[in-house]
Design a protein that fits this description.
Elements (H helix, E strand, L loop, with lengths): L1 E2 L4 E8 L4 E2 L3 H4 L3 E3 L13 H9 L5 E7 H7 L3 H8 L5 E3 H8 L5 H13 L19 E14 L2 E2 L6 E3 L5 E6 L20 H22 L2
Antiparallel strand pairs: 1-8, 2-3, 2-7, 4-5, 5-7, 6-7, 9-10
């Protein structure tokens, strides 16, 4: 039997067209995402997995990560980001210049950043994000073009508490165990269910459970 085959881990920050992951730490530390109109479209703190769908719903299936030099320095601690920077994916300029590179109408990105600064000063964000504690973005910013992507599936073979594969009737199949990416994890049936580390959870935890259960089955204990 299988379960949650529609579940998967997505990511809403894969640099386009380079195909390099842009760390979500930039969003968590104060960055924002805008579409080609220069407008935010979501709460960037909801999670990078479900953000993949939100980004793909934007015009052209792309968005831009808006960061400043402070966030750029954070990004440089991640090898993927360093690779992207060397490839020319991160280019800084004035807000007006970045606005033009995004393709937004004049003043749109300026207005978006003004709204963010208001939220940092205590205004309520329309998307529900809490901006308190994050320093305002500098006047020199960069827009990193990104798209959404599917990283790996989360559903798989249905198992019992001993990581034994079960049949359609829920009964265990003798001698057959499943773990890691082959087994159904705890993410559920949708992209929103994924949490960081779920893949390692099924690999390490279910690997241990399955190994111990198989050993007990062999020696009859």
């Amino acid at each position: 039997a299988t379960r949650d085959m529609s579940g998967y881990q997505g990511h809403g920050s894969v640099i386009h067209p380079h195909g390099i992951l842009c760390t979500w730490a930039l969003m968590m530390e104060g960055g924002i995402q805008v579409n080609s109109a220069g407008q935010r479209f979501s709460n960037e703190h909801d999670g990078y997995s479900e953000q993949s769908v939100k980004v793909l719903r934007q015009p052209g299936g792309v968005a831009w990560n808006i960061i400043d030099r402070r966030l750029h320095q954070i990004g440089l601690s991640f090898p993927d980001y360093v690779e992207a920077d060397r490839a020319g994916a991160v280019r800084f300029g004035s807000v007006e210049a970045v606005e033009k590179s995004v393709g937004a109408r004049q003043g749109a990105l300026v207005a978006t950043l003004a709204q963010v600064r208001a939220c940092q000063a205590g205004a309520i964000d329309r998307y529900g994000r809490d901006f308190t504690g994050a320093p305002p973005l500098d006047d020199e910013i960069a827009a990193i073009k990104v798209t959404g992507a599917l990283f790996h599936t989360q559903g798989g073979i249905d198992i019992d508490a001993e990581a034994r594969a079960v049949g359609p009737d829920g009964s265990p199949i003798a001698g057959l165990y499943a773990g890691g990416g082959a087994a159904c994890g705890v993410s559920g049936a949708s992209v929103e269910g994924y949490l960081s580390g779920n893949g390692l959870l099924t690999a390490v935890a279910l690997g241990s459970v399955a190994g111990c259960a198989a050993a007990r089955a062999v020696d009859g204990t």
